[in-house]
Design brief:
single chain; about 130 residues; mainly beta; four-stranded antiparallel beta sheet; about 5% helix; globular
Length: about 130
């Protein structure tokens, strides 16, 4: 069992930056691939980024949605049971509720085969 709690959402102007955190509780956090999704009003929840578990010498491989590539960075600190999403050059269309997710493999997360979801955190980008 893994419990995920997001934090760091808020209001930011277009072109600005914002960082999200997702703290996991559970002894197996480091074995999961971790991802971020977002859901804008009236739209389906969409994949944003994923990071594999990583090792003591490798930070984990990453995959990004085309819409955020080059602007968002996903990272994790397994010692702190935390995954991060650093967002820059934000656009109004990035406005959404952002969800943290845990899954078995990166491909599972990309296909929305999720074992655990966080409760979500609101990100609003003003124009």
């Amino acid at each position: 069992q893994v419990t995920l709690v997001e934090s760091g959402g808020g209001l930011v102007q277009a072109g600005g930056s914002l960082g999200l955190s997702c703290a996991g509780a559970g002894r197996t956090f480091s074995s999961y691939s971790m991802g971020w999704f977002r859901q804008a009003p009236g739209k389906e929840r969409a994949f944003v980024a994923v990071i594999s578990p990583g090792t003591t010498v490798s930070p984990g491989s990453t995959v990004y949605a085309d819409s955020v590539k080059g602007r968002f960075t996903i990272s994790r600190d397994n010692a702190k049971n935390t995954v991060y999403l650093q967002m820059s050059s934000l656009k109004p269309e990035d406005t959404a509720v952002y969800y943290c997710a845990a899954g078995n493999r990166p491909a599972d997360i990309i296909r929305t085969r999720i074992d655990y979801w966080g409760q979500g955190t609101q990100v609003t980008v003003s124009s």
